[in-house]
């Protein structure tokens, strides 16, 4: 149950502002300001800067009134918080829609040149993912198919593979091969979506990828060198169904 904060009189607000603007006011403000949007407004009117901690707490609480106040004082909904914009923190459809209506960019790419959709596909409710796509999220940029393969609900992930492939996602793209990400990730494991599906024994996603043209012979990179392809990975595993699926696809290439 949400507890509504008590209304404060003007005198009480003045007293709190005086208290917060004393020694260590920055730390105190971060703890107190979000309890009441009127208090937050007073703090900002007294030239208090909008720091990431205050915004992050408002986002985590989904406190629309406080966020409206922050917007009024010039906060940018696409300003990164700890490397990521607020849309990366969303996990429900209503709050996502509200952020989009208030200026959040569905295609912002703050970190590793990866869009919001990359993270949402892995962890967010499927309704959030559908909303982002409906609002114009670019399906051709970012390791979206890798994210779909990594989704906990494999059936939803497979459905997203189909959708993303139809929207232009490259089914044979190595992970993190855009110029920004590759500079930082080149020596890590960079699989194809199909190789990742084999690693995770994600048969629904593997089927969807193969239906959309995934190449079982395409090799991933590991520490800058070519590594085992999907066929070899399936052989080294202990999943006869996956191996049969991959071998059948290879025979057609």
UniProtKB/TrEMBL annotation:
Keyword Repeat attached: yes
Record bears the keyword Repeat: yes
UniProt superkingdom: Eukaryota
Stored SUPFAM superfamilies: Ankyrin repeat (SSF48403)
InterPro entries: Ankyrin_rpt (IPR002110), Ankyrin_rpt-contain_sf (IPR036770), Multifunctional_regulatory (IPR050745)
SMART domains, alphabetized: ANK (SM00248)
Keywords, sorted A to Z: ANK repeat, Repeat
Name of the protein in question: Ankyrin
Species, as recorded: Teratosphaeria nubilosa
